[in-house]
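Let us work through a complete example step by step.
Step 1: write down the sequence.
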Amino acid sequence: MTKRVLMYLNQFFGGIGGEDMASIEPSYKEEIIGPGVGIAAAIKDNAEIVGTIIMGDNYFGEHEEEAKQFILDTINEVKPDVFCTGPAFNAGRYGFSCAGACQVAHEAGIPCVSGMYCENPGLEYCQSIAWVAETANAAAKMRKAIPAIANLVNKVCTGEEILPEVDGYFPKGVRKCIHVDRIGADRAIDMLLARLNDQPFTTELPMAEFDEVEPAPPIKDLSKATIAIVSSSGVVPAGNPDRLQSASAQQWNKYDVTGMDDLPAGDYYTVHGGYDPMYVNEMPTRAVPLDIMRELEHEGIIGHVYDTYYITTGTGTAVANAKKFGEEIGKELSELGCIDGVILTST
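Step 2: predict the structure and record it as tokens.
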């Protein structure tokens, strides 16, 4: 018997619109839409997509209770065998809504499949209740994301064994008892010997890794200190002369503000995506606080504001890139030999 699949998409992948339609109320269509077209073709031997829920990212975030009720009502009416969301890639609000939608389906007893980038903030919330295929960080890689999601849908429908190392999904954190030929002590000794001899091995219990950052020593005398401004708010001179990306930043830039006490609206603006830029464009120093820092300098509370500010964008930027930017900016400031502290601002 062919399984029934219910899709969940946001306003963009649902073909309704972009950020201007992010607050649109939920709707249900008995159609195969957007990424569902590719998924439907890949699962046609085992399942069919019977319809699609479309909902604005902002609507879900601002009306979560109503949004979840709509999803539950649709599930109860459509009676799917599998609930499929995304792929959300690295879109945070979409990832959050996909996770919330999967929670509704999971609590209704419906198996869930999704797709996200490893740094999507919705992943941690979703991966324990759904099979979440690992995708790239942007929709440009949709052609690779669709087969990964479809593979999981097919295996859920057929009841085949699903393994993260084989099927490319984020582990759900479930441990299962299995029978093996050799006891744990023997396997552990083999891994230890392999490690001591610089030979490859695969641990049976991967451990989480966490960064440890040692706090810098306190500034001894703020009234004599030179403070630099670093920001991930995307504020650049008019025209964005260095083409800073609005999301998924690949670079950082710096701009001279010698003799300036302000960043005039119109002369400076933000290219940062993912939020309403109106308030920053109206007053760029809301994100890059040059005006307040100059006041503190004139009042003698701090010694000097460094005459160059450093800028990138935060939304969607990979952790690896953010770490790289921080190391590069920190190295440059350190090598100047005159910087005593940094104020770091964001959106």
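Step 3: interpret the result. The radius of gyration is 25 Å.
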